[in-house]
Amino acid sequence: MSGKPKLHYFNGRGRMEPIRWLLAAAGVEFEECFMEAKDDLIKLQKDGSLLFQQVPMVEIDGMKMVQTRAILNYIAGKYNLYGKDLKERALIDMYVEAMMDLNELLLSYPFQPADKKEQHFANTVDKATNRYFPVFEKVLKDHGQDFLVGNQFSRADVQLLEILLMAEECKPDILARFPVLQRFKAKISNVPTIKKFLQPGSQRKPPQEEKDVPKVLKIFY
Predict the structure, then answer these.
(1) Rounded to the nearest 5°, which phi and psi values hold at 6?
(2) pLDDT digits (tens, 9 = 90+) for 160-195
(3) Could you write out the DSSP letters of every residue in 200-215?
(4) Which of helix, strand or coil describes residue 184?
(5) Cis before residue 110, ω within 30 degrees of 0?
(6) Taking the CA atoms of the chain, what radius of gyration do you get in angstroms?
(7) Burial 187-202 (b: 16+ CB within 10 A, else e)
(8) How far is the C-alpha of 35 from the C-alpha of 177, rounded, in Å?
(9) Is the whole-model pTM more than 0.90?
(10) Domains located in the chain, CATH noted
(11) Which segments constitute the GST N-terminal domain (predicted)?
């Protein structure tokens, strides 16, 4: 296991998408091995590739890594996207954990039963605009720098941009009350490696469509 990292997951966003974003932001080329059916997952489980019998799984530096946060932490540390000291790392971890909470709400929307979708959407928008985005708006404003932590590009910036763009896909005017976040979005979108990842034809995945949900569920259930 050498060369480019290899990502094992279904052909969609899910919990692998933040990993794709972080590798792309670091300028790291990666390969993807898509699971198309439940048999593909079972094969990985049976050959011992999945420590806890679940994906995402990333082959990198001779390891078969599982658990999304562990993978993200490793990539961030390896490519100098994890702050300059323990305090900065703690701040990055704090911010990223909040982003992951919001990310779960955004990702799970297509999988909600029809009678729950409206409530789920309203709850997601409420938490984004009243719990999470005000915090990041204030952090950036009080900090007075271009980046969330220190004055250095980090995984927190990458993952916040990912969340902002996902939120706008759900509700295009969701950042209307957050001018600092709007400026942040514009600036980080122009970081060369991220700008490349945002172009058509990159390995960034499109929003999950409801028509794809049954295919995804058949892999895991």
Answers:
(1) -120, 125
(2) 999 999 999 999 999 999 999 999 999 999 999 999
(3) TTSSPPPPPPGGGHHH
(4) helix
(5) no
(6) 18
(7) ebeebeebeebeeeee
(8) 40
(9) yes
(10) 6-79+198-214 (3.40.30.10), 86-190 (1.20.1050.10)
(11) 3-83
